[in-house]
Every structure is written in structure tokens, then in C-alpha cells.
Design goal:
With 413 residues, this protein is an alpha+beta fold. Helices cover 38% and strands 20% of the residues. It contains 15 helices and 15 strands. The structure holds 2'-deoxycytidine-5'-triphosphate and magnesium ion.
Length: 413
């Protein structure tokens, strides 16, 4: 049998080829989706007559539009606003006048006095956030939630060409919400995040790694998520303004100025290298809050305090559910007595609930099933059997358990 020895150069070539092949095989297709002028666009669904006008969304305290005698909504003018507060977002028409997120309202009033001013309605934005994410989830399984108006998607395993797939995702978002979004698609999160911003609004930017020099390197370094104003200023002092100039800089020099870790990251980022996986949040099984009292409480003599504490626990669990966009079908009570014995009681509901009132009502059922043999040391409320869909809300009167309890004949120490 003859043995062949590969010349070193060919050997290197083979290694590179194998590496490239491996990259090609394992290359990912990651999308970043960001809603366009999100809060403002949600407001325009409610006030479609404002479409095409410069509109600014302020804080909660900005006055709401008033209905006039003709049944039309009259919005406040930015120029008439007096008070504190910042712009949460603005329509593209207002941005053309120089008004952007984070600017003071009074400062922006000088730039665009005739822009219309609306108060923020976070419940509406959370609702539409949920809607667009649910719509995307009908097309894509692997989703990383990045907050109210953005998500990363892993499209690698979907057997469909990138462009029609992206259009299908955009259509799903539009059908579910009436809103537009912009999508960037590339082999990683870092580049996709840059890309989703390149063609806003209603944009779609698909980038191959080979497009880096033409499409990414001319951009300012601040376009990289992770290069903030401080690093941007410092890079500028080093004569580095664009991502391309950053890519040209030596890694050693960057490490000298920014530390080993961040210096290395800057170098890799400029070369479009990012292997971070999507972070898929595991759905929690339950959410709970509990509190240990400063002194042990008596079921009858301390009923006012017990009522206040249960209300506050229910409110906190309700807030936790709302923040994570969950509803629960099981509400649990935990009681620790002065003798350290622990009792838990659960009640399952026909419909998922989220409001503090619904939790309180369910909790009353649990409280009725406890034998109060000692003073109480701790109370806890747990929401479980979580669902990401609300139930049909029922308005039942609140039961005052601790009140009723004071009438029961109970032997407590
Ligand atoms: N937001 C805020 N305060 C800021 C920035 C943003 O309250 N300083 C809110 C309002 C935005 C939402 O977050 O609507 C999403 O932020 P984006 O940065 O994605 O901005 P927009 O969606 O408004 O605009 P774009 O089309 O540029 O994404
Ligand atoms: Mg956005």
C-alpha cells in the first residue's frame, strides 16, 4: 500500500476548507425583529386620524385627548405642554423634526411645537406586545424575548427561503396587530440587531457575512449594541469612528485601552463574530410572594392587619403575573403558625386570572379551609397552573375573609 504525505500548504488548505465547510454547515440564520415607532404606532391604531402627523408619546401624566361636541378627539399640542417628562417615542414625522425618545418634552416642544402629544398607555402597549409575539410564534418556534417591542428568532431549522419567510413573519405581525415591524437577518444576533435598524420602518435587511465590509463597516461604532456613548467617545479619541475602523484596529491596542475582555469583544464585534445562542426563557411553574410578620398575628384580633397583608400579597403576585404576561388557574395559600407548622391550601379556578381582586377571592376560599390552631407567623400566596392567555373576566364581589372569620367561633391561643 502506498502512503501519501500531504504537502504542508495543501494540508493547511484542507484545514481551511474543512473549517469553512463546518461554518457553512453550522451557520445560523438569526433574525432580529423590532416594532416600528412602537408606542406611537399603537396610539395611531386608536386615533387613525393622526396618521401622517408628527405625534409624540409622553409619560402617563400627559393629558389624554378630549372628545369635543362633534365626537372628535382633540389632542394636546406639544407646544402647549408645560411640565416635566420625556418623550417615550415619536412618529417618524416627529423624528423628521428632530424629536426622539428620551428628549425632554419642553425641549422637543421648541423643535416641534405643532406636534400632537399623547399620554403613554402601557397596558395597551403590553397587550400589543403580547399579540405580535404570539403571532410570530405561529411561524417560528425558537424566540428570545428582548422586551416590549423586540425579539430574536432562530430561523436556522425552518425549511423556507429567507425572504418569503421574513415576509410571512411580517404579515403575521401585521394581521394580528395592524402594526409594521422591521427585521434584520444574518448569521448572528449582533449583526441582525444592527440590520433591523437599517431600513426602518417596515424594513427587511438580509445580510451574509461577506456583506460586512460594504454594509456594516461604513456605519458608526455606536450602531453596535454594546458600544455605548462612553465607549463611542473613547474610540473617537483613538481616531475610530466607524465599525470598519474598529475592525482595522489591533486587538492588543483595543485591549490596552478597554481591558482584555471588552477589547477582545470590540475586535470580534467589528468582524461580525458573535456566537451567543438565543436565550429562551423557561416558563416558570409558579409565582409566589410571602411575608413573615414582625410579631405573630391573631386571626381575629389582628384582622385589619391580616386583611392589609393579604391584599398586598395578592397585589404583588398580580403585578408579577402582569409583568410576565401570565394568568394563573390555581391560587395557593401558605400559612406558617407560631409553632412553625405549615399548612398549604390550593384552589383551582375555571378560568385563568391575573387581577389582585380575583386572587383575593380565590385566596378567601383557601383561607376558609384552614384550621386556625395558633397565631400566624407567615402568610404566602402562590399563583400556579400558569397560562399566557387571559380568561374571561368575571366581576364577583370581593369576600372579606378576615371579617367573616371574626364571627366564627375559633379557639386560638
Ligand atoms: N421607549 C421608551 N423610552 C426610551 C426609548 C424607548 O419608553 N428612551 C419605549 C417607546 C418605544 C419602545 O420603547 O416605542 C420601543 O423602543 P424602540 O427603541 O424600539 O423605539 P420605537 O419602536 O419607538 O422606534 P423604532 O421604529 O426606531 O424602533
Ligand atoms: Mg422599535
Amino acid at each position: 500500500m502506498r502512503r501519501y504525505t500531504l504537502p504542508v500548504s495543501l494540508d493547511r488548505f484542507e484545514t481551511k476548507l474543512l473549517k469553512d465547510l463546518l461554518v457553512a454547515i453550522t451557520a445560523r440564520r438569526i433574525a432580529h425583529l423590532d416594532m416600528d415607532a412602537f408606542f406611537a404606532s399603537v396610539e395611531l391604531l386608536r386615533y387613525p386620524q393622526l396618521k401622517g402627523k408628527p405625534v409624540v408619546v409622553g409619560g402617563r401624566r400627559v393629558p389624554a385627548p378630549q372628545l369635543n361636541a362633534e365626537g372628535e378627539y382633540i389632542c394636546g399640542r406639544l407646544g402647549d405642554y408645560v411640565g416635566r417628562g420625556v418623550v417615550t417615542t415619536s412618529t417618524y414625522e416627529a423624528r423628521a423634526l428632530g424629536v426622539f425618545s428620551g428628549m425632554g418634552l419642553m425641549q422637543s416642544a421648541r423643535l416641534a411645537p405643532d406636534a400632537l402629544l399623547l399620554p403613554a398607555d402601557f397596558e395597551a402597549y403590553k397587550h400589543h406586545s403580547r399579540l405580535f409575539k404570539q403571532a410570530v410564534a405561529t411561524v417560528v418556534n425558537v424566540i428570545e424575548d428582548r422586551g416590549i417591542d423586540e425579539i430574536y428568532l432562530d430561523l436556522t431549522d425552518i425549511d423556507e427561503d429567507t425572504e418569503p419567510l421574513a415576509q410571512r413573519i411580517k404579515a403575521a405581525v401585521r394581521d394580528a396587530t395592524g402594526l409594521s415591524c422591521s427585521i434584520g437577518i444574518s448569521p448572528n444576533k449582533l449583526l441582525s440587531k444592527i440590520c433591523s435598524d437599517l431600513d426602518k420602518p417596515d424594513g427587511l435587511t438580509i445580510l451574509q457575512i461577506g456583506d460586512l465590509p460594504d454594509r456594516i463597516w461604513p456605519l458608526p461604532v455606536s450602531k453596535v449594541n454594546g458600544i455605548g456613548p462612553k465607549a463611542t467617545r473613547k474610540l473617537e479619541q483613538l481616531g475610530i469612528a466607524t465599525i470598519g475602523e474598529l475592525a482595522q484596529a489591533s486587538e492588543q491596542v483595543l485591549q490596552q485601552h478597554f481591558g482584555t475582555h471588552y477589547g477582545q469583544w470590540l475586535h470580534q464585534a467589528a468582524h461580525g463574530i458573535d456566537d451567543r445562542p438565543l436565550v429562551i426563557e423557561r416558563q416558570p411553574k409558579s409565582l409566589s410572594r410571602e411575608t413573615t410578620f414582625e410579631r405573630n398575628l391573631h386571626v381575629r384580633h389582628d384582622r385589619a392587619e391580616l386583611t392589609r397583608i393579604t391584599d398586598s400579597l395578592c397585589q404583588r403576585v398580580s403585578q408579577d403575573l402582569a409583568t410576565k404576561s401570565f394568568w394563573c388557574r390555581t391560587v395557593g395559600l401558605k400559612v406558617k403558625f407560631a409553632d412553625f407548622t405549615v399548612v398549604t391550601r390550593d384552589v383551582s379556578l375555571p378560568q385563568p386570572v391575573q387581577s389582585a381582586q380575583a386572587l383575593r377571592q380565590a385566596l378567601s376560599e383557601c383561607l376558609k379551609r384552614v384550621q386556625w390552631h395558633d397565631r400566624i407567623r407567615l402568610l404566602g400566596v402562590r399563583a400556579s397552573a400558569l397560562s399566557d392567555q387571559p380568561g374571561v373576566i368575571q366581576q364577583n364581589p370581593q369576600l372579606g375573609f378576615w371579617e367573616a372569620e371574626s364571627d366564627r367561633k375559633l379557639e386560638t391561643k
